[in-house]
Amino acid sequence: MPQTPIQRPALFLDRDGVLNEDHGYVFRWEDFRWIAGAREAVAAFNRAGWLVIVVTNQSGVGRGFYSEDDMHGLHARMSEDLAGAGGHIDAFYHAPHHPDAPLDAYRHPDPPDRKPNPGMILRALSEWPIDREASLLVGDKPSDLEAAERAGVRAALFTGGDLLQFLNDEALLPV
């Protein structure tokens, strides 16, 4: 009989505004800037045995501003850079759909993965051995927090500054 994997808590992170500075539709490495303390926060959760999962609305894909390949390329560069800081992202989930997307393939009246809908989080919960009750989502918008609430995951609103310091100040860093 196969063993059930041991469940671990997950740190769900929005991308733009939490991991990187949000300049609007960031998809090129040369435009990417880490939020202060973001790499260190990811590494701290990695060391504590948490899964780290990015859940990001990416309507720029659906709007035709950049491709999914562009976005995946940026995520690969983020991962390479994080490795240099001793951290890693276990999974990236993205929601390219938008109700007003000019591209038919990405137009949906209420995309189930686009926050505030909880689709990305629910998919991660079904695909990874995650302890939902011990997990945390950090986002910078009310829609992030609503998605977490709808998925049954506690959430914290990051309003800027140093992410590691914020998590420490809010007593959210794992020990």
Protein architecture, described:
- The chain is built from six helices and five strands; from the N terminus they run E-H-E-H-H-E-H-E-H-E-H.
- It has 175 residues and is of the alpha/beta class.
- It has a single domain (11-169), classed as HAD superfamily/HAD-like (Rossmann fold).
- The protein has a five-stranded parallel sheet with strand order 3-2-1-4-5.
- The N and C termini lie far apart (34 Å).
Q: Which short descriptors sum up this protein?
A:
175 residues, alpha/beta, Rossmann fold, 6 helices, 5 strands, 14% strand
Helix content: 25-40%
Strand count = 5
The largest sheet is: 5 strands, parallel
Question: In the CATH hierarchy, what is the superfamily?
Answer: HAD superfamily/HAD-like
Write down the CATH topology: Rossmann fold
Domains counted in the coordinates: how many? 1
The second-level CATH architecture is 3-Layer(aba) Sandwich
Radius of gyration, taken over Cα atoms and rounded to an integer in Å: 16 Å
Helix and strand pattern: EHEHHEHEHEH
β-strand amount? 5-15%
| Low-confidence blocks of residues | none
Total helical elements? 6
What is the CATH domain class?
Alpha Beta
- First-last Cα distance: 34 Å
